[in-house]
Write a structure and sequence with these properties.
By secondary structure, the chain is an all-alpha fold. It has 12 helices and no strands. It is globular.
């Protein structure tokens, strides 16, 4: 969902700004800031590095067996909490100001979360929070230097951080939405189907939908039409239907062979390869259309033979 988080935030921010009557440049600016901040909560898997180092070293701060086993000890906790998102967004807006006193206040707001998280969740939670707030501060400073106003930074940060946990409802354990309060907003992940393969395909479809929504939001604010950038070669994605017969059915636990192969279908967007074609909207939208058709074709065959 890494790409999906960014695309969902981009779309929400861009469409929201568009509806409010903001100028195109401002709407796209807040959308980009939102997309960047939407990727930030997943820095909590940084502890998963211990899962890679500990087996080689023979020890570690906490016994772990794998990257995800380690990362999941703190994943979707403090960095995915809505109350924390509001505080971080406010601190980021202050850090983006040009005045030194405002920046110091914003930095103080962000850094104050570290001892608070440590007191509530221990050293590991505090360490993850430190990485989280440092990342937020860096994004705020970078956006400010690129000309984004404190209002843009604050709004973008709020959209990105608040939308992120909702994109995690289909995979893994639900985020701790209201941390540090002992209130469970969602107890279990949203199950799209009792069939694990159909659930995975549904989650993948949701991911594709967020990308399409971001593309539509961009073209809506720019006044262009996305279908004008789709090449007819996108229909070649339908040929991926045969993968439903050739590859093992993917599940949320084992899905790499499906994800990597279906994404590879997107290369039709840059075929034949050329410097003029790569990096164009026509290549990107054609690739997205091909992947979408491939996923739909795969699902159709799976429903028939599965």
């Amino acid at each position: 969902m890494f790409v999906g988080h960014a695309c969902l935030a981009f779309a929400v921010a861009a469409l929201g700004a568009y509806r409010l009557g903001w100028r195109r440049e401002t709407a796209l600016q807040v959308a980009v800031v939102a997309a960047l901040f939407a990727t930030l909560p997943d820095v909590d898997v940084v502890y998963g590095i211990a899962g890679l180092l500990a087996p080689a070293a023979g020890s570690g701060p906490v016994p772990v067996e794998s990257f995800w086993d380690a990362g999941n000890r703190v994943h979707r906790g403090v960095t995915h909490a809505l109350p924390i998102a509001v505080v971080v967004a406010g601190g980021a807006a202050l850090v983006a100001r040009s005045r030194g006193r405002s920046r110091l206040t914003g930095a103080g707001v962000l850094l104050a979360l570290v001892p608070a998280a440590t007191a509530l969740g221990g050293l590991l939670t505090g360490a993850v929070t430190a990485v989280f707030v440092l990342g937020a501060g860096a994004l705020a400073v970078g956006a400010g230097r690129r000309g984004a106003s404190p209002r843009i930074v604050g709004a973008g940060a709020a959209v990105g951080l608040v939308t992120h946990p909702f994109g995690d409802l289909f995979t893994g354990s639900p985020p701790a939405f209201l941390y540090p309060f002992d209130v469970t907003l969602v107890a279990e992940r949203v199950v799209l189907s009792t069939d694990p393969t159909l659930h995975l395909l549904g989650a993948f479809g949701f991911e594709l939908a967020t990308v399409w929504l971001a593309v539509a939001a961009y073209f809506m604010t720019s006044g262009e039409r996305p279908h004008a950038h789709v090449d007819r070669r996108a229909v070649l994605g339908v040929a991926y239907a045969g993968a439903a017969l050739a590859l093992p059915a993917p599940t949320p636990d084992v899905s790499y062979h499906f994800v990597f192969s279906v994404l590879a279908v997107g290369f039709v967007g840059v075929t034949p390869p050329s410097l003029e074609r790569v990096g164009t909207w026509r290549a990107a939208v054609t690739a997205l259309a091909a992947i979408s058709l491939a996923a739909v074709a795969y699902a159709a065959v799976y429903l028939v033979v599965g």
